[in-house]
Automatic annotation (TrEMBL), chain B:
<feature type="compositionally biased region" description="Low complexity">
    <location>
        <begin position="24"/>
        <end position="33"/>
    </location>
</feature>
<feature type="transmembrane region" description="Helical">
    <location>
        <begin position="297"/>
        <end position="318"/>
    </location>
</feature>
<comment type="similarity">
    <text>Belongs to the binding-protein-dependent transport system permease family.</text>
</comment>
<dbReference type="GO" id="GO:0055085">
    <property type="term" value="P:transmembrane transport"/>
</dbReference>
<feature type="transmembrane region" description="Helical">
    <location>
        <begin position="244"/>
        <end position="264"/>
    </location>
</feature>
<dbReference type="InterPro" id="IPR000515">
    <property type="entry name" value="MetI-like"/>
</dbReference>
<keyword id="KW-0812">Transmembrane</keyword>
<dbReference type="InterPro" id="IPR035906">
    <property type="entry name" value="MetI-like_sf"/>
</dbReference>
<feature type="compositionally biased region" description="Low complexity">
    <location>
        <begin position="1"/>
        <end position="15"/>
    </location>
</feature>
<dbReference type="GO" id="GO:0005886">
    <property type="term" value="C:plasma membrane"/>
</dbReference>
<feature type="transmembrane region" description="Helical">
    <location>
        <begin position="40"/>
        <end position="63"/>
    </location>
</feature>
<feature type="transmembrane region" description="Helical">
    <location>
        <begin position="109"/>
        <end position="131"/>
    </location>
</feature>
<feature type="transmembrane region" description="Helical">
    <location>
        <begin position="195"/>
        <end position="215"/>
    </location>
</feature>
<keyword id="KW-1133">Transmembrane helix</keyword>
<feature type="region of interest" description="Disordered">
    <location>
        <begin position="1"/>
        <end position="33"/>
    </location>
</feature>
<protein>
    <submittedName>
        <fullName>Binding-protein-dependent transport systems inner membrane component</fullName>
    </submittedName>
</protein>
<dbReference type="Pfam" id="PF00528">
    <property type="entry name" value="BPD_transp_1"/>
</dbReference>
Length: 291, 333
C-alpha cells in the first residue's frame, strides 16, 4: 500500500504506532460490544433456572443445555416446535416469493419504457416510508372482512410486499443484465418473457439472493403484524411466541430458561443464511450502497 | 427498440397488412408496433404481481386509514342503541393532537431520534473508516463479528438486553455492583438510553457494512492524492473519504429515521418488566393501544395518519437539507 508508506515517512514513528493501537483498541471494544451479549445468550442457555439467577454465567457446574432443550420442546405441548415451523414457512416461502415478485418488477422498470414510469417508481419508493403501524389496522379490518383474521394468510400475504426489493431489482438489472444480451436473445427468437426467465433471471442471481435475505430477515423479525392478526397460539411465529412466554415468565419463572433457549435457536437460521449466502449479499450490498 | 424488429419481421410478412398502420407518424419499419406491444405485454406480466400486492396491502390500507380517521363510532341512547359510524370531520385529529399521552409519545420518539440517529451514523461511519484505514488486524473477522447482531431478530435482541438489564440475572449489573456502582437500567431517566442501546447494538454493524462497501468504491487515486498533499490518515478519512460516501450517509440516516419513528418492538417488550413504559409510550404503541385495546378505530387511524405525515415531512426535510448542504459545498469549491 503506497498510502501507508507515504504517511509513515511523513509522520514520526511513535504517534503512528499509537494511532495504530488506538484504532485496534476501538475496533476491539466494538467487537466485544456486539459479541458479548450473544455469548451471554449461549452461556445462559446452558443454565438451569437457579444458576441463571445466581448470575454466575461462567461457571459450568450446572450444565443443563440438553435439559433446557428438551424442556423447550416439551413446554406447553410442544408449542415451540410449531412456532419454529411457522416462522420458517412465513419467512422462507414469503421471502422466496416476495423476492421473485420484486425482482421481476424492478427488472421491468429498468428494461421497458412506458408513460409515467418514473412517477410510478417514485410511488413505489415512497411506500418504503410508510410505517407498518399505519397499515396494520386497515389490514386487520380487511382481513376480518375477508374472514382471514387469525389464519396463515393474514400474515403471509402482507409480508410479500417489498418495495425496497423493487428498487434493488432495478439497480441489479442495470448492473448485471446488459441490454445486448437481451437483444441477442430476441435475435434468437426468444419471446420477452422467455428472455427474462431463461436469460436475465440467471444473471440476476446475486440480486435475487440479496433481496431474498433482506426479506427473510424482515419476515423472521416480523412482530407487529402477527401480534395484530393472530390470536391462535398455534399460528404464532417464534418472535410473537417468545414475547408471550416472556410475559408469562414474570409470574412463572420456569419460563426463563426456555425463553433463553428458544431465543438462541431462533437466531440460528438467519446466521446460517447469512453465512452460507455471504458471497451474494456482500456484492448485493455494494450495489445498493453505491448508487 | 428499432433493432428489435428482426425478431418480429417474419411474423409480420406472413400476416395481412395491419389496418392501423397510420398510427405511427414516421414511416416505422414493419413490425415495430407489434414488438412494442409485445414488450408492453411482457412488462405488464412482470409488473402485475407486485402491483396487485401494492394495491391490496398498501394503497387500499393507506386510503382506508385516511378514510377511517374522519369517522367515529357513535352509540346513541347512552351506549345501548345500535352502534353506527358517523362522519366526525377533524374531531379525531383534534382528539389526537390534544391528547397529552400522544404528544408525550411524540416527544419521546423525538428525543430517541436525537440521541439514536447521530450515534448510529457517527458510530457506523467511524467503524467503517477505521476498518478501511488498513491498520486493523483481522479485518474480515471483525466485520463479521460487528455484523452478527443483524442476524438477531429485534425481539430477541430486546430479550437479551432486557435480561442484561435485569438485576439478579445480569452479569453486567453484578460486575458494576462489585465496583460499588448501582445502575437501574430501567429507571425513569435510563429507560430511553437503554432502548437506544438495543437499537444501536442491533443495527450498528449492518450500517457499518453499508458504509464500508461504499468506501471500497472510492477511487484509490483520490486517497493517494490527499496523502501526497500531506493529509494525515485522520484528515484523509474525515475530509476526503467521508464526503465521498455522502449519498450512503444520507441513505443510512434516512432509513434509520424512518425505522426510529416506528419505535415499537423494544419498548413493547421492556414494558413487560418496567412500569416506566406505559402502553402509550411511543406513537406506534399509542396506535396499537387505541385500535386493539380501546377499539377506537377513528382515533387510531387519525394517530397513524399524523405519524405518517411526520415521517413524510421529516424525510422530505432530510432530503432537502442534504441537497442544500451538497449545493453549498459545491459552491464553496
Amino acid at each position: 500500500m503506497s498510502t501507508s508508506t507515504a504517511s509513515r515517512t511523513a509522520s514520526p514513528l511513535r504517534p503512528r504506532l499509537l494511532g495504530r493501537s488506538v484504532v485496534n483498541l476501538v475496533v476491539g471494544v466494538s467487537v466485544l460490544y456486539t459479541l458479548l451479549p450473544v455469548l451471554w445468550l449461549v452461556l445462559a442457555s446452558t443454565k438451569n433456572r437457579d444458576a441463571l439467577f445466581s448470575s454466575n454465567v461462567l461457571s459450568l457446574t450446572d450444565f443443563s443445555f440438553v435439559r433446557n432443550l428438551t424442556d423447550l420442546f416439551a413446554m406447553d405441548g410442544g408449542l415451540y416446535g410449531r412456532w419454529y415451523g411457522n416462522s420458517l414457512l412465513y419467512a422462507v416461502l414469503g421471502a422466496a416469493l416476495g423476492a421473485l415478485v420484486s425482482i421481476a418488477c424492478g427488472y421491468a422498470f429498468d428494461k421497458y419504457r412506458f408513460a409515467h414510469k418514473e412517477k410510478l417508481f417514485g410511488l413505489v419508493l415512497a411506500a418504503v416510508m410508510v410505517p407498518q403501524t399505519v397499515l396494520a389496522l386497515p389490514l386487520y379490518l380487511m382481513a376480518s372482512a375477508a374472514g382471514l383474521v387469525n389464519t396463515f394468510w393474514a400474515v403471509f400475504i402482507p409480508v410479500l410486499f417489498n418495495p425496497f426489493g423493487v428498487y434493488l431489482g432495478r439497480i441489479f438489472s442495470q448492473g448485471y443484465v446488459p441490454d445486448e444480451v437481451l437483444e441477442a436473445a430476441r435475435m434468437d427468437g426468444a419471446g420477452e418473457l422467455a428472455a427474462y426467465f431463461w436469460v436475465a433471471l440467471r444473471m440476476l442471481g446475486p440480486g435475487l439472493v440479496t433481496v431474498f435475505l433482506f426479506q427473510l430477515t424482515a419476515i423472521w423479525n416480523n412482530f407487529f403484524l402477527p401480534m395484530v392478526m393472530l390470536s391462535d397460539q398455534d399460528l404464532y411465529p417464534v418472535s410473537l411466541g417468545l414475547y408471550s412466554w416472556n410475559s408469562s415468565a414474570s409470574v412463572s419463572p420456569e419460563y426463563y430458561p426456555v425463553v433463553i433457549m428458544g431465543s438462541l435457536l431462533a437466531v440460528v437460521p438467519l446466521i446460517l443464511a447469512f453465512a452460507l449466502l455471504q458471497r451474494f449479499w456482500r456484492s448485493g450490498l455494494t450495489a445498493g450502497a453505491v448508487k | 427498440m428499432t433493432s428489435a424488429t428482426p425478431v418480429s419481421a417474419p411474423a409480420e410478412t406472413t400476416a395481412p397488412p395491419a389496418p392501423e398502420r397510420h398510427v405511427g407518424a414516421a414511416p416505422a419499419p414493419a413490425g415495430r408496433g407489434s414488438a412494442r406491444r409485445r414488450e408492453l405485454g411482457a412488462c405488464g406480466v412482470l409488473m402485475t404481481p407486485f402491483f396487485v400486492l401494492m394495491v391490496t396491502v398498501f394503497l387500499i390500507p393507506v386510503a382506508t386509514a385516511v378514510r377511517l380517521s374522519f369517522f367515529s363510532d357513535d352509540q346513541p341512547g347512552l351506549g345501548f342503541g345500535p352502534e353506527r359510524t358517523v362522519f366526525a370531520g377533524l374531531r379525531n385529529y383534534t382528539a389526537v393532537v390534544t391528547d397529552p399521552t400522544f404528544l408525550g409519545g411524540l416527544g419521546i420518539v423525538a428525543l430517541y431520534c436525537l440521541i439514536y440517529i447521530p450515534l448510529m451514523v457517527a458510530g457506523a461511519l467511524a467503524l467503517a473508516l477505521l476498518l478501511d484505514s488498513g491498520v486493523v488486524r483481522l479485518r474480515g473477522t471483525a466485520q463479521l463479528a460487528l455484523f452478527l447482531p443483524h442476524a438477531v431478530p429485534g425481539i430477541i435482541a430486546a430479550l437479551i438486553w432486557l435480561y442484561l438489564y435485569t438485576p439478579g440475572i445480569s452479569p453486567v449489573i453484578e460486575v458494576l455492583g462489585k465496583a460499588d456502582i448501582t445502575v437501574d437500567f430501567l429507571g425513569v431517566h435510563t429507560v430511553l438510553p437503554s432502548i437506544v442501546n438495543i437499537a444501536l447494538w442491533s443495527n450498528l454493524g449492518y450500517n457499518m457494512v453499508v458504509f464500508y462497501a461504499a468506501l471500497q468504491a472510492v477511487p484509490r487515486e483520490v486517497i493517494e492524492a490527499s496523502v501526497v498533499d500531506g493529509a494525515g490518515p485522520v484528515r484523509t478519512a474525515l475530509q476526503v473519504k467521508a464526503p465521498l460516501v455522502r449519498s450512503s450517509i444520507v441513505m443510512v440516516a434516512m432509513f434509520t429515521l424512518i425505522f426510529a419513528l416506528q419505535l415499537f418492538t423494544e419498548p413493547m417488550l421492556l414494558s413487560q418488566s418496567t412500569p416506566m413504559i406505559n402502553s402509550r409510550f411511543s406513537p406506534s404503541m399509542y396506535i396499537y393501544d387505541a385500535a386493539f385495546t380501546r377499539n377506537n378505530y377513528g382515533l387510531a387511524a387519525a394517530a397513524s395518519v399524523v405519524l405518517l405525515l411526520c415521517t413524510v415531512a421529516l424525510s422530505y426535510g432530510v432530503t432537502r437539507w442534504t441537497n442544500r448542504a451538497a449545493a453549498a459545498e459545491e459552491g464553496a469549491r
